[in-house]
Design a protein that fits this description.
It contains seven helices and 14 strands. With 245 residues, the chain is of the alpha/beta class. β12, α7 and β13 form a beta-alpha-beta unit. The longest helix is centred in the N-terminal third of the chain and has 13 residues. The chain is globular and about 55 Å long. The termini are close together.
Length: 245
């Protein structure tokens, strides 16, 4: 299992970058986790768009879905060029019916409904979900192959249920959007200290921080995480391959 960060920012991307998104691959299957602003451009550094096999969307805020339309256009342009492909499945919850319906487009992409009670097979991956605490309905996701797993928290405040959901994972990719002075004051997000606490309580083997703020020194968030978790911890690095063997 290989996980590659495509973007690391929350809200909107810095210049020449992308919002938080990850490519997960195993046995030739390629799945994108979230598809926000700048993601499609960044993704093409690591995978031709036509090689993408599935997309999973955590929620419908723009920094997680902004490039879905461009992805759909890429599929229909190939269709017009005489290179048709099977409809690309895009998994997302249907608690927001209007945005869920937009995942399906002219037989090029098809929306597939998911919920926190589901365990779905996406290519070689068994994928389960956990509702997070965010201003809109949002799902954390866990990808497993055999006894290997990774967890993406998506956007969330602290939630005790995420501890069991992340239990024993090989790689915990946690949002860490807040500096410590903002923890508990900004809805829907965690600070580095909470990401570290989650990794420690869940017994995660490795912690990677994402959905980072565009202001300040993000090394402060890294430092706060390390105070609560003594395992391997780092800021997500775009293009770096995180392998679970």
């Amino acid at each position: 299992m290989k996980i590659t960060p495509i973007g690391i920012w929350g809200g909107y991307p810095k210049a020449n970058s992308a919002t938080s998104s990850f490519l997960i691959e195993h046995e030739g299957f390629h799945c994108l986790m979230d598809c926000g602003s700048g993601v499609l451009s960044s993704l093409q550094n690591y995978l031709p768009l036509e090689k993408l096999d599935a997309v999973v969307i955590s929620h419908y805020h723009a920094d997680h879905i902004a490039d879905i339309g461009s992805l759909q256009f890429s599929r229909i342009i190939n269709f017009y060029l005489g290179k048709p492909a099977p409809a690309l499945p895009i998994y997302g919850h249907d608690q927001d019916q209007e945005n869920f319906d937009k995942l399906s487009y002219k037989e090029q992409t098809v929306g597939v409904a998911i919920s926190e009670d589901d365990v779905v097979q996406i290519g070689p991956f068994e994928v389960s979900f956990c509702q997070t605490i965010h201003p809109v309905h949002c799902l954390a996701m866990r990808f497993s192959v055999g006894d290997q797993s990774m967890v993406l928290t998506a956007d969330t405040e602290w939630r005790d249920e995420l501890v069991d959901f992340s239990r024993g994972t090989d790689l915990l990719i946690s949002e860490a959007n807040l500096y410590e002075e903002h923890v508990g004051k900004a809805p829907g997000h965690m600070g580095g200290s909470e990401a570290g606490k989650l990794a420690r309580l869940a017994g995660a083997k490795r912690l990677v921080l994402t959905h980072l703020p565009l202001h300040g020194d993000i090394e402060e968030i890294h430092g706060a995480a390390r105070q609560n978790y003594d395992g391997p911890t780092e800021i997500a690095e775009v293009g770096k391959a995180y392998e679970i063997l």
